[in-house]
Amino acid sequence: MKIRPLEKDKHYHIYNREINGITIFKNDENKRYFLRLMQKHIAENVGVLAYCLMNNHFHFVIQVKEDEKLVSQSFSNLFNAYAKAFNKQEDRTGTLFERPFKRKLIEDENYLRNVIVYAHTNPERHDAIGDFRNFECSSYAIFLSKNKKYPLKIEINEVLLLFDNLENMDYVHGDSLGKQQTNLDLSGF
């Protein structure tokens, strides 16, 4: 399989899941730790527009700010650092995430909005919670000022500009759940 390079100044949907049915985030502290590692390894090289950490997979919407090799290495460092800590915690060895991590180039603004909505509403779509707005480990909670536990810098102003304002963003997110918005290509996921 040919891996698409992460081109500077482009937006991507980054997502991945566990291997062999392993729960990769056993608790809230695991999720906080992953986001701290994300801040440490990735934040200088990408702008994060949205994220959502589920128990067995995650979604990030990013804009690449640096050279592809630097960004790819940063993601590798993130995944390896988390897997090492998780394996120690769980007294296990081996790979934790599918390789390579999935990446989809976002080529237009409408698709970018749809991917952000998809990431934020993922917990409700997977029946992890009744209302995605109450899911703490999503960047949506940052927009609602409900997220104090999960530290990761988000490009708030850029996202709000995509939706015009917070009220419209909330409307679009809520409206998407009434529609079968599955036009996102998540091949192999």
TrEMBL record:
In this chain the Transposase IS200-like domain maps to 7-122
Q: Which InterPro entries match?
A: Transposase_17, Transposase_17_sf
Q: Domain of life, per the record?
A: Bacteria
Q: Which SUPFAM superfamilies match?
A: Transposase IS200-like
- Protein name listed in UniProt: Transposase
